[in-house]
Amino acid sequence: MSIEKSADKINGDFRRKSILSLGQFTPQDIDILFQETPRMQTTVEGQQQLIDLKGQVVSLLFYEPSSRSYGSFASAVQRLGGGIIPVQNPEIVASVAKGETLEDTVRTYECWSDGIIIRTRNPGDAAGAAKTAQFVPVINAGDGIGEHPTQALYDLYTIREKFGRLNDLTGVITGDLLNGRTVHSLLKGLALYQNNAVFLLSPESLRLPPKDITELTNEGLRLVEIDSVDDIPRDTNFWYWTRVQKERFASLHNYEAVKHQFILTPELLRTRGNDNMLLMHPLPRTGEIEAAIDLDPRSVYLRRQMRNGLFVRMALLALVMGK
Ligand code: CP
Question: What is the pTM of this model?
Answer without folding.
Answer: 0.96
